[in-house]
Design goal:
Layout (H helix, E strand, L loop, with lengths): L5 H4 L21 H15 L3 H7 L6 H7 L10 H12 L14 H11 L9 H10 L4 H8 L5 H26 L3 H4 L30 H8 L19 E6 L4 E3 L6 H12 L11 H5 L2
Antiparallel strand pairs: 1-2
């Protein structure tokens, strides 16, 4: 349905109204700058609040134009309503994605906050969405995907431990190698890197506790909890010889989830820590005990 209220719909455009001349918005521009340019042209043309609403959709192109059709029917009663929704939707354009060897989570969060400080988004739904959209694929993005945040305050609180790990690893790296990671821009090896190894096949001297469920099924049942430490993904990388095998743990081809050595060792670690007792297969002797 029509997103504008009845009063805006019924507002006529004067015959002598001066055409608004602005570069069409196609979502690649800064939404703040675009709004300022549009409102300046409206002011020069002598337009009012209702005319601003009625003319604004005609200055949009592509995805931005399609976005207008997604607004709830009769939800826009003033231009402030429209501007608020517009900025919230396209504010992510101001925040560049994290580079694979680029900025830290701490710097990205600070830059995002600076870029969105003027956004009026009471329920923070759009800000949360924009933050996740710009976040590099990795442990923190996986954590947010598994347990979706409801506010930026929650994101900042949950990011603390990840930022602490980054800073600790940076200090260790500087002490070990004698240079600043920021200057070298080399990836820091974290404890999660040990999971980024191809699945091993064949015999092994390592003992694994017998389980009542397949490891792939256990992963599916605990993936939404804080127990598994998911490795940072390397998009497009084939991790093993089985090009058609897919691993849910690494989110990569090259081996199957069930054959994943890293998953085996992590599940065994969780078993030894007592977190997965319900999946441990009891021996016949133990089952016979009263």
């Amino acid at each position: 349905g029509q997103p504008f209220c009845k009063e805006i719909d019924e507002t006529p455009i004067p015959l002598n109204f001066r055409e608004v001349v602005v570069e069409p918005f196609d979502r690649t521009q800064d939404p703040y700058v675009y709004l300022q340019a549009f409102q300046t042209q409206i002011y020069i043309s002598g337009g009012n609040d209702r005319l601003s609403c009625k003319i604004f959709p005609g200055t949009l192109r592509g995805v931005a134009m399609q976005w207008m059709t997604t607004l709830p029917a009769r939800s826009i009663k003033t231009f402030n309503d429209l501007a608020r929704s517009f900025v919230s939707q396209f504010v992510a354009n101001k925040v560049k994605k994290l580079e694979a060897e680029g900025e830290s989570l701490k710097n990205y969060l600070a830059r995002f906050n600076n870029s969105t400080v003027r956004v009026d988004d009471p329920d923070q739904k759009f800000l949360v969405k924009a933050f996740q959209k710009g976040l590099r694929t990795g442990l923190f993005s996986d954590a947010l995907a598994l347990r979706r945040p409801s506010s930026m305050e929650e994101i900042r609180a949950r990011a603390e431990k990840y930022m602490e790990v980054e800073e600790d690893q940076l200090e260790w790296h500087k002490a070990e190698h004698g240079f600043d990671h920021k200057e070298e821009r080399r990836p820091i090896q974290t404890k999660e890197d040990k999971h980024l190894v191809p699945a091993r096949t064949g015999d092994s001297t390592q003992h694994f506790t017998p389980l009542t469920e397949k490891r792939a099924q256990i992963l599916r049942e605990i993936c939404h909890t804080i127990l598994p430490e998911f490795p940072e993904g390397d998009k497009g990388k084939v991790m093993g010889k089985d090009k058609e095998g897919w691993c849910d743990f690494h989110r990569a081809f090259g081996h199957t989830t069930e054959d994943c050595w890293a998953l085996r060792t992590q599940i065994e670690k969780l078993v030894q820590e007592g977190h997965l007792n319900r999946y441990v297969r009891q021996s016949p002797d133990k089952r016979r005990k009263p």
